[in-house]
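Risk register update: the risk that structure generation would not scale has been downgraded. Supporting records follow, first protein first.
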Amino acid sequence: MTENNLSDRFVERRLKRGTQTLRELSDDLRVTREQLDFLIDEAQEKEIRAMFAETPDAALEHHQAQRHLEVMQRHHDHLVAKIAEQKVHQDQLLDKLGN
């Protein structure tokens, strides 16, 4: 087995792992988007409730819902960035395999 064959096998294994990672990140992103949609609706509902109720409890509920939404949005953004990074890495590995 030549050094080139070993290198190709190594790259192929990394590509397979990368494909699995992309699949997992995409699944996580899908679930996160569903949760994000729910949290957006919940935060909007609690914001309206807080405006009309004008009570400290309603304001606190709105603040907590908004914080949950912000955390989920950061997680969503992180996943989108990780997927983009992983795709770039996969492309680089494919380029190595092609050479």
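Supporting record for the second protein:
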Amino acid sequence: MSTLMKTGLAPTGYMEKGCYVKDITPRLEATGIFVVSQAIQGSARNGNYWRLTLCDASGALEAKIWYPLSSEFADIPSGILVSVEGRAETYRGQIQLNVTGMRLLDAVESSAVDQMTLLPRSPYDPDAMLEELLDLAAEEFTHLPWRKLIFSVLENREIRADFRIWPAAKNVHHAYAGGLLEHTLGVFGLCQHMADHYPELDRQTLLAGALFHDIGKIREFSGGIANDYTTEGRLLGHLELGLELLTPRLATSGLEEHLGRHLKHLVLSHHGEPEFGTARLPQTAEAFALHYADNMDAKMAQCLNLSGQLSGNGQEWTPWQQTLGRQMHRPGHTPKQMQEQYETSGHDGVSELDETLRQAAKPLDPETVQADDPAKKTPKEGLLSLF
């Protein structure tokens, strides 16, 4: 057993975190403390093995414990802290840790680890996100019953404390502290754009749905390092739990009955299709708008996260992603040379390239085109000849 595996509490009363997931590169001998978010036992020709997902504040990676070391662990509970030593390798384009030593930390040791080093969290400041959401709500909700309902929820001390730090999922999208607030802001912003583009929509009802569509997740998930489903989360799900949270506040808000009913429909239908867990199909334009905004923000979060995980050494494709049903490609972006050339141009803001493009875009002079040659007709003549 390695020196790391024998180490207990440090003399100062805390345990060193060691390396972070983000710093683990191929062929690195890595040692550190991580959270086990998933542990699955499998069977190979030379004996049973464990496939783990190890997490910390910087991300997650897969780890394997091969036989005979794997036989030392009868159970590896989800959410437990482990002290790990291993060698990083590349498998199917992803970094994987081959564990050579591991110890499950007990409760005393776990409490001596700085939790902020282990808990994945949003890249955005939670207080700034919450302040932004409150400002948006104050600006958007002008109907007094809507305003009363919205702030009866957002100003509730317990709900607000949870909403500030809760994850939006267990492992698919925004699955980190502050993820629910970040996702809610994203969906709210998309719905604002939709309401701008389609003014026929009931803007305040749509935005109330955006604000509360996932509020039930503060009861569906446990939060914290383990972040697993609660019992009521497994039995009821966040759609029903969200309605349970809203219903008593709706009753005292003075909101018109038809608006309250519409809000409930938005919460129940925002997953869109039965195979994605919706309780009802979207049956209003606002319900469709909310569903697509929610789906868009979740999908973009997955895509951008996957793209960010690709190395910078020419890697263009992710491994197969079960949640998206495909591999994802990271294409090259449009170069910025034209913008830079335009900004540095000394021709009163008009570069030589701009002038070249303008000339190329000019319509043909009808007098220079031979009318009897179909291939050389003016654009207008060519279109008219089709009728």
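Residues 126-309 form a domain with the Hypothetical protein af1432 fold (CATH 1.10.3210). On this basis the risk owner (M.S.) recommends closing the item.
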